[in-house]
Specification:
It is globular and about 55 Å long. The chain has helices at residues 16-32, 43-50, 54-60, 64-82, 98-109, 111-118, 124-143, 165-183, 190-204. It is 61% helix and 0% strand. The relative contact order is 0.13.
Length: 206
């Protein structure tokens, strides 16, 4: 049987020290990828930056690519979890919600990492994770009926949802647009891209 892969966000650890090590490794990778291509980053680079030894690295990940998947997934999940539930009423807006612009700004800020992981030699596993996380968030927003509560976010979204074709369609389209944009060097601004995408998202809404 093939070896079971650890979760994208790293092996679950009850030990606070292990969680700190995991966070340090993920942050070290995010720092390093700002200056070096992902394929050029070594385990030694990561452990030196994180102030940890190689055995600690291998307690969590088999290689740098797996760490990159984990760091990107954790970062993206945090972004989505903090976003407010917009509700179906948002499609009546003529302007895109700020959350759409924030998504593209986040991708641009970490363009080197997303370019490597969303490209042809990237991670299908990560791409599936991002697409699923967005599908869940879009579905949950579509069920949300309290536009004025101001404090409801996606932090407690379920792990899975019923089959939701519009949510899956919009999530896949957003990820595809982001991947194409970052591959081209992020031309224009996140605001401009968000404005171009918004009418298409509204058209896909039930």
């Amino acid at each position: 049987m093939p070896e079971e892969k650890p979760p994208l966000t790293g092996r679950a650890q009850a030990d606070p020290r292990a969680r700190r090590s995991l966070a340090a490794l993920q942050q070290a990778l995010l720092d390093l990828v700002l200056d070096k291509e992902l394929g050029q980053i070594t385990v030694a680079d990561v452990t030196k930056r994180a102030g940890l030894n190689r055995s600690t690295f291998y307690d969590h990940f088999p290689d740098v690519h797996a760490l990159a998947e984990s760091a990107c997934a954790a970062m993206f999940d945090g972004l989505v979890a903090a976003a407010p539930k917009l509700g179906p009423y948002v499609v009546a807006r003529s302007e895109p919600p700020v959350e759409t612009t924030r998504l593209f700004a986040h991708v641009a800020e970490h363009a080197h990492l997303y370019r490597a992981l969303l490209g042809p030699d990237g991670s299908a596993r990560l791409q599936d994770h991002l697409r699923h996380r967005m599908t869940v968030a879009i579905h949950v927003s579509g069920q949300h009926t309290s536009p004025d509560d101001g404090g409801s976010t996606h932090v407690d979204d379920p792990a899975d949802i019923p089959h939701d074709v519009p949510a899956a369609f919009v999530a896949g389209a957003l990820l595809s647009v982001a991947a194409d944009w970052v591959r081209r060097g992020c031309p224009g601004t996140p605001e401009e891209l968000s404005a171009a995408v918004w009418p298409l998202m509204v058209g896909a809404s039930p």
